[in-house]
Amino acid sequence: MEQTPVRGRRTLLDMNGYQWTVLFAAWLGWGFDIFDSLLMNYVAPNAVPTLLGLTIGTPEAAAATLWWTGIFTSLLLIGWAVGGIIFGKVADRIGRTKTLLLTMLLYSIGTAACAFAPNIWILMLFRIVASLGIGGEWAAGAAMVAEVVPENRRVEAGALLYTAAPFGLFLATFVTYQVTGVYFTDPGTSWRYVFLFGLIPAGVAFFVRLFIKEPERWQKVAHDQRAKISELFSPKYRALTISGFCMAVTALITWWSGNAFIPIVAKGLASREWTELTNAGVSGLPSIEVMGQQWVRTATNSFNLGGLIGTLLTIPVAKYLGRKTMFFIFYLVAAASIMSAFGLDLAPHTRLYFYFPIGLSVFGIFGSFTFYLPELFPTRLRATGSGFTYNIGRFIAAFGPFLVGSIAAGGANSLDGAIRVLFWVGVVPIVGLLTLPLVIETKGKVLAD
Known about the structure:
The protein is 76% helix and 0% strand. The chain has 21 helices and no strands. Helix 1 runs antiparallel to helix 8 (200-211) and helix 2 (59-94) packs antiparallel against helix 19.
């Protein structure tokens, strides 16, 4: 069987070559999923004013960018939720591999099409198309990995799968910086070239088609009774559904309410610092656009590095302390780090590095959902249940970026407004801690067929 390595042969983490190939394919799919999902936030300070006919860098452009970034991020989350729920059912019906291929092609084409948007409304339409594929990819990939890897390595494989998210974030930062800060420095058009890089996952999709087959676990139940979302609320599965939902929605609201505005906060801080240094007569400064991209890179790399370390930390914490204790630790650190980052009186550049502990906790906890949610449900319902609990919370989380953006944009100083609102995002993980009594512990349990 796929789940059992060849006896007598030493393998890394007890997994054979094919199991590592499956993990790598899902890893690429999820990494590019995050890459495509974040490109809009990275180019928003230039794309939004351009499409609205505003002058880039003006207070009006900054306020409009905050407002529209909130709207685009909220729409992304809604499309993500719809795609995750729909394609979760599709994955249980037609298979994990086919669904992975289909969703990757969908979000690749949708993202690349944004490069040709003539106005903000067409851009919104293309982002919605991409978001459907972005949402659907996770459920198929997570279910596939959980069903293929050895039973005793499910936690490690799940966490390793999520390390693709920091990779996607780093790639989005790198591509945006190289395109807009190095090769195409005209802010009015450079953002269009950034979106064209969304086509990269289409090539990865063909890799999936050539080398990955359907998990044996799924093939055994493929012709059983079709999974229904209504079953998740039956007495047999209701507590499991509530458990997954409570932890996922807490993480989603916190992550998207904060991360969506990293480029805007970093660019705003850079602009303020650049103006003060210029007024003080400091010479040799880079252009305000280049300096802004440098500060965005510092903030996102801090968040990214913290997320990567936090993701890997979910492995020992989950295996030795259990899932409930893991959620308690990560959400407690998340609340403290967010309130410190946006509540303390910090120097502009110092504030960027506070994104490291935020990433460690807010970003890192997502490494657990790739193994925790599939653990809750049997094979026949695994993608449906995982996709639903992980994504239904995005409908609620969608209000976070919209609220942050609209409140921040309404103030006289959009940057200070954003920082004040982001401070209160730290309350969300505290609320999540109050739902811990509803969490089902899955430590030591065998994956149900």
